[in-house]
Design goal:
The chain is mainly α.
């Protein structure tokens, strides 16, 4: 038996012993690829769920703000009506005082607008 035959036998035995290791490494690589794909799918699903939750929260917040704004508008509208009625009663009750106040305000605004810088 020659040296090259001995070397070939040693190489063949080494290859036989390495085959289970190579197979295990190949299985591990396949498992890692599958796990990576699973994580990718899980992340995509999680992203979709987070977007849905954020949208729902935004809609809820917007609806709440819209309701508050509508309530504030209604309150302002009601208070404006009350103030207008009160002003009208005062003008009817005190016409000369109202006229004097209006003239005074007009005079002040006119003086302010005609001022030169």
């Amino acid at each position: 038996m020659t040296t090259s035959d001995s070397m070939n036998k040693v190489a063949d035995r080494a290859n036989e012993r390495m085959k289970p290791i190579k197979d295990a490494m190949s299985d591990l690589a396949g498992d890692a690829k599958q796990a990576s794909a699973d994580v990718g799918h899980d992340l995509a699903r999680l992203k979709t769920e987070i977007v849905a939750v954020v949208r729902e929260a935004m809609h809820t917040a917007f609806d709440g703000a819209s309701d508050k704004a509508a309530g504030a508008y209604d309150s302002l509208k009601q208070n404006s009506k009350v103030a207008a009625k009160s002003l009208q009663k005062n003008v009817v009750a005190h016409p000369l005082a109202t006229l004097a106040i209006a003239c005074g305000v007009g005079l002040i605004v006119g003086c302010l607008m005609s001022r030169k810088d």
